[in-house]
Amino acid sequence: MENITPQGRPPENHLVWAILTTVMCCLPLGIVSIIKAAKVKKLWALGDTESAQKSADDAKKYAIWSAVSFPIILVVLFMIMKYILESQVLC
Question: Structure pTM?
């Protein structure tokens, strides 16, 4: 069986964004993004260009979800803290 290596460059794996969102935003989604990003070059080298592109797209998607979820989580936590503080003042 001949190993067919695709021509050209592999898709952008978005590893930098995956790492940054893991460290600065949402850990679980960031870890998934890192795992997906790490698969891109391996899949490309194996000749599975379709899976490599899908993994790259997934890495980007999870990095975006991680970045978007961070401010949402902050707002929810702020609202909870505000409610707790207001309820203590009224007692």
Answer: 0.79
